[in-house]
Design a protein that fits this description.
mainly alpha; two-stranded antiparallel sheet; 10 helices
């Protein structure tokens, strides 16, 4: 056990920590940082700290991993804070142009204005979900009342996911037109779970005042769950199946409780997405060059999809 933990600690430090930016703790992919990628990196650091804690590591590596995870989560929050004007506008008008950006400069936290479908509701839900889990585990991530207000506004942002058309997990819109958003089961499912776990969460910890506790509209949870039931096992009206559904069928969201629906999702993914070398994200997945394949290809097969 000790050798295994040491091996993964060395791997995390060499492959992950070495790429973390100094100012904001974000992880760049090429020139930009994607919110979802950075949440996953933060969760990796947090999980490493839990592994070290389980073996009662007293070398300081436990504290180091916790602080690195906190740094990344606070870096993402800083990026969102710089977009408060968009956040306010989106609450009044769900215009894709007012959606929170998902790509940021990893050194300054500025939103990156590149050609990208930024309306991806699941990224905010995923951030809030893991923020709540980390705080409940004892990490101190939120420091001020102003930051509490930002997080509360992010809650308002995702509450209406059940009626907000977005560009899905992969930022590609509908199956036939990547510029057109549509209701996405994955986005709705992650929003439902994030709202549930964030309800009454005290961002300063269990011993703080009620002023720093999050409020979630119970009707928003019910409506997201109701629309999700009607949409699943499909990903959307244009997509019968998508590998992203694994995020809500099982870990981390566990948003679908009907066993028949969960079985249907798994069967559809195996039947339509399993290729020679792994799974595709969706039928006729695009290649790295961006063209849509007219027939099934092995170019985009990935053995990592089941890890979702």
């Amino acid at each position: 056990m000790a050798r295994t933990v040491d091996f993964y600690y060395d791997w995390v430090v060499s492959r992950l920590v070495s790429k973390q930016t100094g100012a904001l703790g974000l992880f760049p992919h090429s020139r930009y940082s994607h919110v979802r990628d950075n949440v996953i990196c933060a969760v990796t650091l947090w999980a490493m700290s839990k592994a070290l804690k389980s073996r009662q590591d007293g070398s300081g590596r436990l504290f180091e991993m916790e602080q690195l995870a906190i740094k990344t989560m606070r870096g993402i929050l800083f990026c969102y804070t710089k977009q408060l004007n968009k956040l306010e506008n989106f609450k009044n008008n769900q215009d894709p142009d007012q959606a929170l950006h998902v790509l940021f400069d990893p050194h300054t936290g500025d939103a990156v204005d590149v050609k990208w479908n930024h309306m991806q509701m699941h990224t905010v839900s995923l951030y809030l979900f893991y923020l709540s889990q980390m705080i409940r585990s004892g990490l101190n991530i939120i420091y001020t009342i102003e930051e509490c207000n930002v997080v509360q506004n992010l809650i308002y942002y995702i509450e209406r996911s059940y009626r907000v058309k977005d560009f899905g997990t992969w930022g590609l819109g509908t199956r036939n037109d990547s510029t057109q958003p549509e209701l996405s089961a994955t986005s709705i499912g992650l929003a439902k779970t994030a709202l549930k776990v964030c309800n009454n969460l005290n961002l300063f910890g269990p011993k703080s005042c009620t002023e720093t506790a999050l409020f979630v509209d119970p009707d928003a949870v019910f409506r997201n769950e109701s629309i999700l039931k009607g949409l699943s096992p499909r990903e959307s009206l244009s997509k019968n199946v998508d590998a992203a559904l694994l995020l809500i069928e099982g870990f981390p969201a566990f948003a679908i409780h009907n066993q028949a629906t969960r079985a249907a999702i798994k069967k559809n993914i195996d039947d339509e997405l399993l290729g020679k070398f792994g799974y595709q994200r969706f039928p006729n997945d695009q290649s790295e060059l961006g063209e849509m394949k007219k027939e099934k290809s092995t170019d985009c097969d990935s053995a990592l999809i089941p890890l979702l």
